[in-house]
């Protein structure tokens, strides 16, 4: 186990998991002195029938009627303010967030506004701006996943001013995260695959980036093992309850890990690709993950090699000579992408040139790569990446990820 | 691990570990909305140097700190009442416990007293209802810990206080405080952490979140305890042991109290023997029993107790034996390094027979008291070599 | 029972203050002739100002833009509107960084350093700081301070730049 000269680790979120974990929400709220929650979600989640399940699980013990399902795909300041007003008008005392990353971020933003009686959310975006516990927030993730049910970050966009506000505080951590297998059962294979690879990228980047620490490491190892085992299973068989629960737990573990050890190039380039081309985050992660490992291989080969045992099991681990283990991890990730590509009938893209939108149009034209490479320079994930990366490095990696060819490490400048 | 049965997990404390960790205290306290901490400690048990290291860490912050350093091994609710008055009169807003064991237990109960604003702390008991989060509370362990410092438990005068709310907001493991000149102190702390983490790791109700803490603790102890015991100037090894102790506190707070945990507590309460000493003695008989019941319960232990390569090379059917062998080897080396300083059985621990009678009486009151007595008998008879 | 008022750490604080003074003026200097440093600052808003310093009570270094030029504005946080603060959590942590026991990169990894403000601004400033450190420090130390020591610099750039930075820093122009 590595022990850095100095590290910090924090995950104060209570985790409740199971096939009927939702039924515990009334007690969880009561423990926090709450009984009138505002349920925040989005139309997709509601249409999948998940809010009905949640309401039924609340069993009339807790008011389940105040439901706001207008959260857009990108968390929006106007919606935050509107929901905060709704909360206050109805004298709510807690929030239940049911959904993916955007719903979680919106709920966290609403929580700031209602807890601090804020008129200007921006005022709370500085470090140390939040000084005390916010209102009870129960996070119920419906993907497996972004891990945002256990992160201390919320990103809220002000579309009018074209600003992206980032809030970071331990007080933003939800009070409880409820992982219930029913919440992810309706995810079709394509979404299952990309959210699962998102979770894997969290677990792996958390393991090799420079803020890694003993606890984030153990969370990562557990997450990698579970994701590699269960993701293909639930992608093929969406109604596998145990598999779904395992993936939710794994995504949560991965969320805890990266929240405490940060992420690197995969997220750096992935955020930029998402911002410039609108490619879903999970797809970016799946495609870029092997490249992030390759790029940083010379600096963290040993750490990457340690991922082989949880990823592939004892037999493959023993068969692989020590000096090839890290490379084997990279090939296995590529293999996972191939397998998921088959399982999803080609919808899970293996490289950027393959990513298509609903109308079959290519989402990442080659001539846009320079723009993505430039945008990546403005993303903070580069700080925690083991190796430095400038515009040329970014472009090199993006070109390789576009073509689907392994990255040529001989071409890179090594620090 | 059976996830389908459902589980819950919580770890309310943040961990800051390493070089000059204490110096972040002003910022950390400010994040907890605390600006005037009361340090609760024991001059006898932690020493002047440790107290000075802590107070100096606030240098340049302009903060005012209170220091109460009169906690002793025989602390009870009277001293809690005394400190509660000091806290209230001095208008402190947070508590820092510097030390381990009884110091932290006292601090936890003081935090309870001041947060509930009780008129008389002597009325507090394990039955006192604790619904809401308590005031800001930081634990700064020194080397002599029991592994319960970060846990939801506090024991004062044999009275247990149990609540997640008793757990600290923050634990700070600073290399200047986690070393000990005497290898025995390291060994006691390390064994206690090890056994607590081990019981959590093989608990039937274990879950992956708890495992993450327990696994880290087990690996840290396996890889570092013997070095820390043999070489008191090895800062990193000592810090690893301290990390393990803090992590084991989280693990035990998320599962029931195992056999070793309870036995260690009884001996600590009644004869003031460090729980690590007793737990170390009882570990082998308890694991033998697990083996007889179902060896698969132990086979999971091989993973943290050995290297990845050795684990992978051991077929599943042989893992339980492998775990026992690894453990035996580890304990032999540890006790070998300590020689006669660390008793290997109850006879060597020198506990007078009349006290042993009292201990047996207390133990037999447990629901599995008969079984626990057999463990003690076996720990009493033989040394630990295979 | 005693009440203690936290004392000071005068020596460490003085060391940090001197280093920050030096670095602030070095950034001012480097921005005048190093293309890359100039490019980073040109991309920032006209009155952009950042502060680098320690909690809880400083010292601080304030650097910003005025009339297209990059200037060192001293150590008073109140002198201008600050867009970005790079905050080191204690004087001790600052001492570890500025005596090169911990690189800037490792310090960030170890939560010693917090970014308070827009991340793209912080990245630009960190890139500029990295370049300035390469000028100020011999390679053996600068390699500890930066993540990847630049390999493409000509000898002339390094030597000329180093002389330029030191001269301007000490003379303040």
General description of the model:
The complex is a heterotrimer of chains A (415), B (386) and C (173). With 415 residues, chain A is α/β, with parallel strands linked by helices. Chain A folds into two domains: 14-183, 3-Layer(aba) Sandwich (Rossmann fold), CATH 3.40.50.1970; 189-411, Dehydroquinate synthase-like - alpha domain (Dehydroquinate synthase-like, alpha domain, Up-down Bundle), CATH 1.20.1090. Chain A has 15 helices and nine strands. In chain A, strand 5, helix 5 and strand 6 (137-141) form a beta-alpha-beta unit. In chain A, helix 7 (214-236) runs antiparallel to helix 8, helix 10 packs antiparallel against helix 13 (325-343) and helix 10 (281-305) packs across helix 15. Chain A starts with 5 loop residues before the first strand and ends in a 12-residue tail after the last helix. The model of chain A has no long low-confidence stretch (mean pLDDT 93). With 386 residues, chain B is of the alpha/beta class. Helix content of chain B is 53%, strand content 11%. Chain B is built from 17 helices and nine strands. Chain B has helices at 25-31, 43-46, 48-56, 77-90, 102-116, 183-201, 208-230, 235-252, 259-271, 275-293, 296-299, 302-305, 308-313, 319-338, 346-349, 353-364, 369-381; strands at residues 7-9, 14-18, 37-41, 64-68, 94-98, 136-140, 153-156, 159-162, 170-174. In chain B, strands 2-9-6-5-3-4 form a six-stranded parallel β-sheet, sandwiched between helices. In chain B, helix 6 runs antiparallel to helix 9 (259-271) and helix 7 runs antiparallel to helix 8. The radius of gyration of chain B is 20 Å and the shape is globular. The two termini of chain B are 30 Å apart. Chain C is an alpha+beta fold. Chain C has one domain: SCP2 sterol-binding domain (Nonspecific Lipid-transfer Protein, Chain A). Chain C has seven helices and six strands, in the order βααββββααβααα. Chain C has helices at 10-33, 35-42, 91-98, 104-109, 119-136, 139-145, 155-171; strands at residues 2-5, 49-54, 60-66, 69-74, 84-88, 113-117. In chain C, a hairpin with a 5-residue loop joins strand 2 (49-54) and strand 3 (60-66). Chain C is globular and about 65 Å long. Classes of the chains: A alpha/beta (415), B alpha/beta (386), C alpha+beta (173). The interface between A and B is large, with 48 and 46 residues.
């Amino acid at each position: 186990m590595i022990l850095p000269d100095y590290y910090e680790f924090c995950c104060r979120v209570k985790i409740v998991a199971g096939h009927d974990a939702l039924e515990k929400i009334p007690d969880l709220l009561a423990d926090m002195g709450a009984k009138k929650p505002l349920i925040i979600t989005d139309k997709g989640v509601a249409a999948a029938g998940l809010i009905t399940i949640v309401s039924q699980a609340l069993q009339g013990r807790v008011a389940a009627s105040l439901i706001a399902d207008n959260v857009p795909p990108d968390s929006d300041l106007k919606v935050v303010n509107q929901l905060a007003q709704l909360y206050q008008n109805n004298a709510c005392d807690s929030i239940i967030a049911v959904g993916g990353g955007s719903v979680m971020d919106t709920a966290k933003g609403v929580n700031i506004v209602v807890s601090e009686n804020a008129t200007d959310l921006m005022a709370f975006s500085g470090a140390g701006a939040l000084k005390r516990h916010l209102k009870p927030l129960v996070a119920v993730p419906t993907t497996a996943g972004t891990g945002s049910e256990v992160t201390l970050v919320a990103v809220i966009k002000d579309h009018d001013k074209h600003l992206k506000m980032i809030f970071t505080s331990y007080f933003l951590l939800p009070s409880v995260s409820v992982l219930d297998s029913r919440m992810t059962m309706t995810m079709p294979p394509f979404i299952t695959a990309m959210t699962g690879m998102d979770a894997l990228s969290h677990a792996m980047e958390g393991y090799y980036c420079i803020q890694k620490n003993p606890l984030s490491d153990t969370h990562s190892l557990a997450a990698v093992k579970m994701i590699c085992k269960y993701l293909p299973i639930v992608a093929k068989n969406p109604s596998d309850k145990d598999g779904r629960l395992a993936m939710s737990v794994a995504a949560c573990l991965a969320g805890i890990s990266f929240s405490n050890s940060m992420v690197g190039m995969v997220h750096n380039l992935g955020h930029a690709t998402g911002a410039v081309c609108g490619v879903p985050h999970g797809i970016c992660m799946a495609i870029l993950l092997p490249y992030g490992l390759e790029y940083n291989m010379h600096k963290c080969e040993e750490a990457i090699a340690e991922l082989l045992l949880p990823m592939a099991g004892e037999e493959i681990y023993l068969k692989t000579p020590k000096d090839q283990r890290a490379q084997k991890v990279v090939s296995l990730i590529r293999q996972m992408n191939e397998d998921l590509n088959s399982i999803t009938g080609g919808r899970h893209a293996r490289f950027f040139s393959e990513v298509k939108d609903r109308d079959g149009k290519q989402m990442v034209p080659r001539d846009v790569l320079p723009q993505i490479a430039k945008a990546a320079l403005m993303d903070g994930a580069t700080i925690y990446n083991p190796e430095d990366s400038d515009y040329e490095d970014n472009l090199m990696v993006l070109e390789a990820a576009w073509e689907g060819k392994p990255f040529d490490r001989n071409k890179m400048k090594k620090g | 691990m059976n996830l389908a049965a459902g589980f819950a997990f919580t770890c309310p404390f943040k961990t800051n570990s390493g070089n000059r960790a204490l110096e972040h205290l002003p910022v950390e306290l400010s994040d907890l909305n605390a600006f005037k901490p009361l340090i609760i400690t024991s001059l006898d048990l932690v020493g002047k140097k440790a107290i000075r290291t802590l107070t100096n860490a606030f240098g340049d912050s302009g903060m005012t700190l209170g220091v109460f350093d009169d906690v002793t091994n025989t602390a009870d609710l009277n001293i809690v009442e005394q400190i509660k008055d000091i806290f209230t009169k001095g208008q402190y807003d947070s508590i820092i416990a510097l030390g381990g064991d009884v110091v932290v237990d006292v601090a936890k109960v003081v935090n309870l007293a001041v947060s509930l604003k009780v008129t008389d702390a002597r009325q507090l008991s394990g039955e006192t209802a604790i619904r809401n989060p308590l005031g800001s509370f930081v634990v700064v362990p020194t080397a002599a810990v029991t592994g319960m410092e970060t846990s939801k438990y506090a024991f004062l005068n044999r009275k247990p206080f149990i609540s997640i709310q008793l757990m600290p907001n923050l634990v700070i493991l600073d290399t200047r405080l986690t070393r000990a000149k005497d290898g025995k102190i390291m060994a006691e702390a390390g064994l206690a952490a090890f056994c607590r983490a081990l019981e959590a790791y093989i608990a039937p109700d274990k879950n992956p979140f708890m495992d993450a803490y327990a696994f880290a603790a087990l690996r840290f102890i396996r890889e570092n305890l013997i070095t820390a015991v043999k070489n008191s100037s090895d800062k990193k090894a000592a810090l690893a042991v301290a990390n393990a102790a803090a992590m084991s506190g989280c693990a035990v707070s998320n599962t029931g109290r195992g056999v070793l945990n309870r036995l260690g507590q009884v001996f600590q309460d009644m004869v003031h023997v460090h729980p690590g000493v007793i737990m170390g003695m009882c570990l082998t008989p308890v694991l033998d029993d697990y083996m007889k019941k179902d060896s698969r319960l132990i086979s999971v232990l091989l993973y943290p107790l050995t290297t990845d390569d050795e684990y992978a090379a051991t077929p599943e059917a042989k893992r339980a034996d492998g775990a026992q062998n690894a453990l035996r080897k580890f304990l032999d080396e540890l006790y070998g390094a300590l020689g006669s300083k660390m008793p290997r059985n109850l006879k060597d621990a020198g506990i007078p027979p009349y006290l042993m009678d009292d201990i047996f009486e207390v133990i037999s009151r447990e629901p599995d008291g008969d079984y626990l007595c057999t463990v003690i008998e076996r720990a009493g008879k033989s040394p630990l070599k295979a | 029972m005693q009440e203690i008022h936290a004392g000071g750490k005068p020596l460490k604080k003085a060391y940090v203050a001197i280093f920050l003074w030096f670095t602030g003026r070095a950034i001012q200097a480097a921005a005048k002739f190093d293309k890359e440093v100039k490019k980073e600052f040109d991309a920032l808003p006209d009155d952009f100002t950042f502060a680098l310093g320690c909690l809880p009570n400083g010292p601080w270094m304030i650097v910003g833009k005025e009339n297209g030029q990059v200037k060192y504005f001293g150590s008073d946080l109140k002198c201008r509107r600050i867009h970005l603060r790079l905050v080191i959590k204690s004087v001790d942590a600052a001492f570890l960084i500025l005596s090169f026991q911990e690189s800037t990169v490792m310090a960030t990894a170890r939560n010693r350093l917090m970014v308070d403000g827009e991340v793209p601004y912080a990245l630009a400033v960190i890139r500029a700081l990295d370049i300035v450190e390469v000028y100020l420090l011999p390679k053996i130390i600068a390699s500890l301070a930066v993540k990847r020591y630049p390999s493409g610099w000509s000898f002339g750039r390094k030597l000329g730049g180093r002389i330029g930075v030191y001269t301007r820093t000490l003379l303040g122009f």
